Amino acid sequence: MKGKGAVYTIIFITLISAAFAAILAFSNSYFKPFINKNLEERERKEILFVAGVEVQEDNLEEVFNKNIVEENINGRKIHVKIDHDKKPEAYIIQFSGAGLWGTISGYIGVEVGLGRLTGVTFTEHNETPGLGARIDEEWFKRQFSSIEIKKGKSLDYEESGIDTITGATSTSRSVMKLINSVLNDIFTEDGIWQER
Amino acid sequence: MAGEIKRVVRHNLWKENPVIRQILGICSSLAVTNLMANTLVMGVGVIFVLAFSSLTISALRNFIPSRIRMMVMTLIIASYVIIVDIFIKAQYPEISKALGPYVGLIITNCIIMGRAEAFALKNKPFVSMLDGIFAGIGYALILLIIAFVRELLGFGTVFGLSLNISGWENWTIMVMPPGAFFVIAIMIWAGANIQARVNKKLENTARNTAGGRALNG
Fold first, then answer.
1. Residue B65 and residue A4: Cβ atoms within 8 Å?
2. A69: domain range?
3. B10: closest CA of chain A, how far (Å)
4. Radius of gyration of chain B from Cα atoms?
5. Tell me, what's the ipTM?
6. Mind listing the pLDDT tens digit for each residue in B39-53?
7. From CA A135, how far away is CA A140, in angstroms rounded?
8. Is A10 part of any domain?
9. Model-level pTM greater than 0.90?
10. Has residue A130 been placed in a domain?
11. CB distance B83–A38 less than 8 Å?
12. Structurally, how many domains does chain A consist of?
């Protein structure tokens, strides 16, 4: 604790930084595979939720592989929900865009005929806890399943009978804007999406 | 040594309890106390960080140049917090999501820097580690009590187990941040009140014995 010279100080801080950086690097590389597995499982759960498939903790992988395939549609990597005869039922499309405080990302499910949504979920957001963050709550997300969509007409809360979140006007608005921008993209390329 | 340990335990659990006596770590006390399971994980995380940061800082106390001691302490604390964060992310992803940024914010929890400055820099490693552990337990216990009240009234559950009280209506406000303000305020009030009574009693006995001695003399 005595006053030490500048050279000692510099050497000390360099050594101790290196030591702790090494410890952190080691624990990070050790735990990385577990964290990645958790992230992947969460991602799969969200995709199944959007597709409207019920899933339990223990059969996640089996259910996922039976119901979901990955496809490349017009340069986008898309998850497709298939039925028992492996016929595509719904597209599950990842989206990401501006919310109130930060980026909101998630998935939106659209039936193959482009007539209805199958569901919406959010995988990442920085909305206000207790207000905008309530987009994570199940009652809010469930409202989007079986909502009718139509080319050339944007979705809106009032007409579709979807409740917004009280006190989170901006977040609710951003969510609808994100959904509409995905739908707009799909409908402008609707030939590609409908032909399968 | 034994007396020192006793002092450390008593001070951290009650006399200088970080939350209700020193009013430190209030931010996380408000944020992570609506479910007991989350609170427990947070408490264990803080105990771990406090124990090891106090141990490390105390072991290095004769080598840390005093001019840069804050930087070094932050570095040590941050490293342990990141390890805890990575561990929770890997082993308890659901709880990690529920705790959100608060695990990372243990770095800025004043209790840890406070124990390092007030205790670890002046004491031997073993006692410092004990001091860290008991400061952490003092913090975790208070948080668990707050979480118990909030979860019970807000969800009607204890550690996620439903109590099934018929006719029970959940108090939504207990789950929201204002609920924590009420509970913490009541606990701080109760703590200060009990301590004031104890002090008064001590004062009285001291005066009586002093008076007795005077009569005898």
1. yes
2. 51-194
3. 28
4. 20
5. 0.76
6. 998 999 999 999 999
7. 6
8. no
9. no
10. yes
11. no
12. 1
